[in-house]
Specification:
- It is a single chain.
- By secondary structure, the protein is an alpha/beta fold.
- Helices cover 31% and strands 14% of the residues.
- A seven-stranded parallel sheet has the order 3-2-1-4-5-6-7, with helices on both faces.
- Strand 1, helix 1 and strand 2 form a beta-alpha-beta unit.
- Helix 2 crosses helix 3.
């Protein structure tokens, strides 16, 4: 991702660490991992902010300083549960402010998922340049909420649904970041099934979005 973000800060001119904020599931963390690998190769310091679920993925971020902050979602909750979620988000925002004060980042990049909301809010409060990346054809809730307030909206698609006109001027089509583990096998030739052989069908999806399957 080389798109410029607020205050004309570019990846090549960074003078502080890059903070990656990503939800605690693979669909958000894997693109963040791909970006962190490239940034580390270029000699940048990388910090990851997410929630407690990162314990399942922390081995994928060698050389990256990881912080877990409180986070919650409003989705499918009653009134009292929503109030509890709001309090947790506020707590997570203060925790994120403490992290950002400590690491003094040059830029924060969000990869979606509800755990990204506290650090994104904290970055806005601190005036830290920020951007988001949307992996899907439909803008996620947090990315939709902050898209008009960040310096750049990087996207895997040219016209992500629900991107408001006020934010479309910040849209940069980057594609989806690809991890080193995927690139390592891209040279393997496709073994097409024979006319008489078995047909193997692969079906896969994200941990949340795959429920329809």
């Amino acid at each position: 991702m080389t798109a410029q973000v607020k205050n004309s800060t570019s990846v090549r001119a960074l003078k502080g660490p890059v903070v990656i904020a990503a939800g605690g599931t693979g669909g958000h963390l894997f693109p963040g991992q791909a970006l962190s690998q490239e940034l580390l190769r270029r000699g940048h310091r990388v910090v990851l902010i997410t929630d407690e679920r990162v314990q399942h993925f922390d081995r994928l971020f060698p050389g990256v300083q990881i912080f877990s902050v409180p986070a919650a979602t409003f989705s499918g909750r009653g009134v009292f549960s929503r109030l509890a979620a709001l309090m947790k988000i506020i707590k997570g925002t203060f925790s994120s402010l403490a992290v950002l004060t400590r690491v003094k980042p040059a830029v924060l990049i969000g990869f979606g998922g509800y755990p990204t909301l506290p650090p994104m809010l904290a970055a806005m409060l601190r005036g830290i340049p920020s951007a988001v990346h949307e992996q899907n054809a439909v803008l996620g809730r947090v990315n939709k909420l902050v898209a008009g307030r960040v310096g750049a909206v990087a996207s895997s698609f040219a016209q992500p649904k629900y991107l408001k006109a006020t934010a479309s001027g910040h849209l940069v089509v980057t594609g989806n970041p690809v991890r080193d583990a995927v690139r390592a096998v891209e040279h393997i030739a496709y073994d097409a099934p024979g006319a008489e052989g078995p047909l193997k069908l692969l079906v896969f999806g994200g941990s949340q979005g795959a429920r329809v399957m």
